[in-house]
Write a structure and sequence with these properties.
11 helices; mainly alpha
Length: about 300
C-alpha cells in the first residue's frame, strides 16, 4: 500500500513542483492576464457597435466573452483547485465531475448577475464598490469555503484510517471467514467496502462544491454587466456572462477530466479491490490537507 501512495504522490506533485520552480506558472499567468486585458478591450468595442445598432456585434460579443472566460480560467483560480483536488481525492465519475464543473461556472456567472442587479438597482453601489466587494469580501469567503471542503476531505480520510485500524484490530480477535469484507463469524465488516467506497458524491457534496466556487463572481462578468447596464443593453451583459461562464467551464471541465483520469490511471491495479479501500483514506487525507493549505494562503493574500 505504501508504494502505491508514494507513486501517486510522485506522479501528482513532481510535475507540478517542476512547473512551479521553472517559472511556468508565471508565464501562464502573464499570458492569461494579457488575454483578459485584450478581451476586455474587444468587449468594450463590441458593445459600442451593439449600441450603435449593429446586429452582427452580438455574435462577436458572445465570442469575445467566451474567450475572456477561457483566459480567466487558464490563470490561477480557485475553481481548478477545488475541482482538480476533489477529482483526485474521491472516486467520482468523469461525467459527474464535469457536470459539477459546468454548473459551478454557470453559478458563478449567476452570482455576478445577482450582485450587479442588487448593487445597481437596490443598493445604489458604484462600479468600484461592487468590484471591491467581489475582491475584498467574496474572494476570501470563497477561499475559506474551499478550505472547509479540503478540511472535510482530510477529516474523512482520517476517520477512514481510524475505522480501518479498529477493524484490523478486531480481526485479530477471531478468524476472519466469509467472502468480501463481511465476516461470517461475527457478521461485521472488517474493512471499507470497495463498492460503497466507489459511490461518487451525494447531492450535499455537489452543492458544497458548486457553492464554494460560485461565491466569488468573476470580475470580468462584473465589468461587462455594469457596462451593459449603463448602456441600456443589460440583456447583452447577461447573455455575455453565460458565454463567459461556458468559456470558464471549458477549462474547469478539462481539469475535471484530467484529475479523474490521473486518479484512475494511478489506481488502475487496485480498482474494486480491498487494497483500494485501504489506500483511499490516505488519498483523501493528503489531498484535503493540500487543498486546505493552498486555499488558506489564497484567502490570506486576498485580505
Amino acid at each position: 500500500m505504501r508504494w502505491v501512495i508514494a507513486a501517486a504522490a510522485v506522479l501528482v506533485m513532481v510535475p507540478g513542483l517542476w512547473f512551479w520552480l521553472s517559472g511556468g506558472d508565471r508565464v501562464v499567468t502573464a499570458w492569461a492576464l494579457e488575454g483578459q486585458r485584450a478581451a476586455q478591450e474587444a468587449m468594450a468595442a463590441a458593445l459600442r457597435r451593439l449600441r450603435a445598432g449593429d446586429p452582427a456585434a452580438v455574435f462577436g460579443l458572445m465570442s469575445i466573452c467566451f474567450g475572456y472566460g477561457f483566459f480567466h480560467a487558464a490563470g490561477p483560480g480557485h475553481g481548478k483547485l477545488l475541482i482538480g483536488g476533489y477529482g483526485a481525492a474521491r472516486a467520482v465519475g468523469a461525467w459527474r465531475l464535469s457536470g459539477v464543473a459546468l454548473a459551478s461556472s454557470l453559478a458563478q456567472g449567476l452570482t455576478a448577475v445577482a450582485l450587479v442587479g442588487v448593487g445597481l438597482w437596490l443598493v445604489g453601489w458604484s462600479r468600484e464598490q461592487m468590484t471591491e466587494s467581489a475582491d475584498r469580501l467574496f474572494a476570501p469567503l470563497s477561499f475559506a469555503a474551499i478550505a472547509l471542503v479540503g478540511l472535510w476531505l482530510a477529516v474523512r480520510g482520517a476517520r477512514g484510517l481510524w475505522r480501518a485500524r479498529r477493524a484490523a484490530g478486531h480481526t485479530h480477535d477471531h478468524d476472519h471467514t466469509g467472502e468480501g469484507q463481511t465476516c461470517s463469524t461475527c457478521g461485521h465488516a472488517h474493512g471499507p467496502d470497495p463498492e460503497a467506497l466507489a459511490q461518487a458524491t451525494s447531492p450535499r457534496e455537489v452543492a458544497a462544491l458548486i457553492a464554494a466556487i460560485a461565491i466569488r463572481p468573476c470580475t470580468g462578468a462584473l465589468f461587462l454587466l455594469i457596462l451593459t447596464a449603463q448602456l441600456g443593453v443589460f440583456w447583452a451583459g447577461v447573455a455575455g456572462t453565460v458565454a463567459m461562464s461556458l468559456g470558464t467551464a471549458s477549462v474547469t471541465v478539462a481539469v475535471a477530466l484530467a484529475s479523474v483520469g490521473l486518479r484512475q490511471g494511478v489506481l488502475a491495479g487496485l480498482a474494486g479491490g480491498a487494497a483500494l479501500a485501504r489506500v483511499q483514506p490516505w488519498i483523501e487525507l493528503v489531498v484535503g490537507a493540500i487543498i486546505v493549505g493552498l486555499a488558506t494562503q489564497l484567502a490570506i493574500a486576498a485580505l
